[in-house]
Amino acid sequence: MFERIITEKAPLPVGPYSQAVICKNLIFVSGQIPVNPETNQVVDGDILVQTKQVIENIKNILEKAGLKLENVVKTTVYLKNIKDFENMNFIYAQYFKHKPARTTVEVSNLPKNVLIEIEVIAVIPEGK
């Protein structure tokens, strides 16, 4: 039905879910939070630092599947405080230059009290 993707270069799941799954020509990456996979701890820092860690985690998961950030077609960004939007967007724009579709929402809380969580959907090119 689908193939699970697991890499030690991103935080390992702490529950009954996968880092990502491949279904047909799509890869669905579970929401990633700013946890350093080497220490398994939330990175210290503001939204700039946390956004960078989240996107690096996503990048590493996609690389395990043989993909790049450029394969991402949709992102969903969850912010603990919408006032962090501008700073999140500054880091986000450095990584997602191809401008995939995106939804950004403020939520009341996130796991481990982090400031941000991002999930993505990417397309696997034909012939891969």
Describe the structure.
With 128 residues, the chain is an alpha+beta fold. The chain has a single domain (3-123), classed as 60s Ribosomal Protein L30, Chain: A. The chain is 23% helix and 31% strand. The chain has 2 helices and 8 strands. The protein has helices spanning 47-64, 85-95, and strands spanning 3-5, 20-23, 26-32, 35-36, 41-42, 72-79, 101-106, 116-123. A 6-stranded mixed β-sheet has the order 1-2-3-8-6-7, with helices on one face. The protein has a two-stranded antiparallel ribbon with strand order 4-5. Helix 1 packs parallel to helix 2.
Summarize the structure.
This protein is of the alpha+beta class.
Furnish the topology, listing elements before pairings.
Layout: E1 3-5, E2 20-23, E3 26-32, E4 35-36, E5 41-42, H1 47-64, E6 72-79, H2 85-95, E7 101-106, E8 116-123
Parallel strand pairs: 6-7
Antiparallel strand pairs: 1-2, 2-3, 3-8, 4-5, 6-8
Helix pairs in contact: 1-2
Helix content: 10-25%
CATH fold description:
60s Ribosomal Protein L30, Chain: A
- N to C succession of SSEs: EEEEEHEHEE
Q: Which architecture would the CATH scheme give at its second level?
A: 2-Layer Sandwich
CATH class: Alpha Beta
Widest sheet: strand ordering: 1-2-3-8-6-7
The low-pLDDT segments are none
Overall geometry comes to: globular
Tally of helical segments: 2
Sheet/helix structural class: alpha+beta
Mean pLDDT: 96
Profile the largest sheet.
Answer: 6 strands, mixed
Strand content: 25-35%
